[in-house]
Amino acid sequence: MTIINLDELAPQALVAQLVVELRGGAAVLPYADYEVIDDWLESSPSIDMLLMVLAEELPAWFAKKPDRPSQSIRGVRRRVLKILKEHQLRTAGVQTS
After folding, report:
1. What confidence tens digit (pLDDT) does each residue in 46-91 have?
2. For the whole prediction, is pTM greater than 0.90?
């Protein structure tokens, strides 16, 4: 068993590790998932905010199809981007509808 020091991971690797842990099954992500992670990182005000949103959203997403342990995160991409945008608007003092 390898122990990963999370303090030494780059943001993309940290998010990928969280996705792998929450998804279970396969230990690596498809290349397309790294593109989604990059989109999320570009849109997120901080890595901590992104990790919090993913920890809330991904378990339910993966639970929808438990028979597909290697499913892509592309299907939840827009939902996470929307949540990140809403958070940015709230912190900027703008109400969302």
Report:
1. 999 999 999 999 999 988 877 776 678 999 999 999 999 998 888 8
2. no
Neighbour tally for 82: CB within 10 Å: 13
Cβ contact 33:27 at 8 Å? no
Q: Taking the domains of the chain in order of start, what are their residue ranges?
A: 11-91
How many alpha carbons fall within 13 Å on the CB side of residue 41?
Answer: 13
Q: Write out the two tokens for 88.
A: 């940015």
Q: Is 80 exposed, middle or buried (0-12, 13-18, 19+ CB in 10 A)?
A: buried
Residues in contact with 41: Cβ distance below 8 Å, sequence separation at least 6, in sequence order = 11, 12, 15, 47, 50
Lookup result for tokens 């339910």? 60
What six digits make up the tokens of 7? 């303090």
Q: What is the DSSP letter of 56?
A: H
